[in-house]
Specification:
This protein is of the alpha/beta class. The protein folds into 2 domains: 10-36 and 118-213, P-loop containing nucleotide triphosphate hydrolases (Rossmann fold), CATH 3.40.50.300; 41-115, no CATH class. The chain has helices spanning 23-34, 42-54, 62-70, 79-82, 85-94, 98-113, 125-129, 143-156, 163-179, 196-217; strands at 11-16, 37-40, 117-122, 135-140, 192-195. A 5-stranded parallel sheet has the order 2-3-1-4-5, sandwiched between helices. The structure holds cytidine-5'-monophosphate.
């Protein structure tokens, strides 16, 4: 008698896009739906920046930043302590350093390799971290829509925020992320584009789910 072992497929889904486009919500929904692990890779850059600040280390020393990045524990990333605006700014500065990216990409790839697979969201998942992902999405929305969403979110959490400042911050961060030489933010050639300006995040999830189901059937 022959035994056939049925091996569940290893699934990796890549979700990229600029800040506040809705990729976090979409990624969490996809991870829940397919029973996959989820990694918000932005947190790895944020945690590196925060660890440097906490230890009083400079933000502009690439070797020091890369050493801190290599020591990160991915199981200990908490968005609530890493969400501050200044940490996001500092994160996008350490994210231009190739040695920091190399250390973090290595950790992100190891995360993606653990069965049954994962949804990773960030800026370079489909292009650099997981170029062989089963499905890739590039989630975007107009800067104004993204600024309004971030603004509403801060107010909803009882905070204070200025819409014009948030918009300026988003545009500055977009420029830094798309303009850097190492792994700039751009859609992978085989990514599905999801523009959440009009469709909203729920409709984006439905569209993404259909595309993943189709890929799984192949
Ligand atoms: O997504 P989030 O706003 O938390 O990311 C913070 C910063 O980390 C981004 O502005 C970007 O510079 C950097 N980042 C990156 N590559 C990723 C994820 C985030 O360069 N895969």
């Amino acid at each position: 008698m022959t035994h056939r072992t049925i091996v569940a497929p290893h699934i990796v889904i890549a979700v990229d896009g600029p800040a506040a486009a809705g990729k976090g919500t979409l990624s969490r929904r996809l991870a829940d739906h397919y029973g996959l692990r989820h990694l918000d890779t932005g947190l790895t850059y944020r945690a590196t920046a925060r660890a440097l600040a906490e230890r009083g280390l400079p933000l502009d020393d690439e070797d020091v930043a890369a050493r801190i990045a290599a020591e990160l524990d991915l199981s200990d990333l908490d968005r609530s302590v890493l969400s501050a605006h200044e940490i996001g700014e500092a994160a996008s500065k350490v994210a231009v350093m190739p040695k920091v990216r190399k250390a973090l990409v290595e950790a992100q790839r190891s995360f993606a390799l653990v069965p049954p697979g994962a949804v990773l969201d960030g800026r370079d998942i489909g292009t650099v971290v997981c170029p062989d992902a089963l499905v890739k999405f590039y989630v975007t929305a107009s800067p104004e829509t993204r600024a309004r969403r971030r603004h509403d979110e801060i107010l909803g959490n009882g905070g204070n925020a200025d819409l014009a400042e948030i918009l300026a911050d988003i545009e500055r961060r977009d420029a830094r992320d798309t303009g850097r030489t190492d792994s700039p933010l751009r859609p992978a050639s085989d990514a599905h584009l999801l523009d959440t300006t009009e469709m909203g995040i729920e409709a984006a999830f439905e569209a993404a789910r259909n595309l993943v189901d189709t890929a799984l059937e192949r």
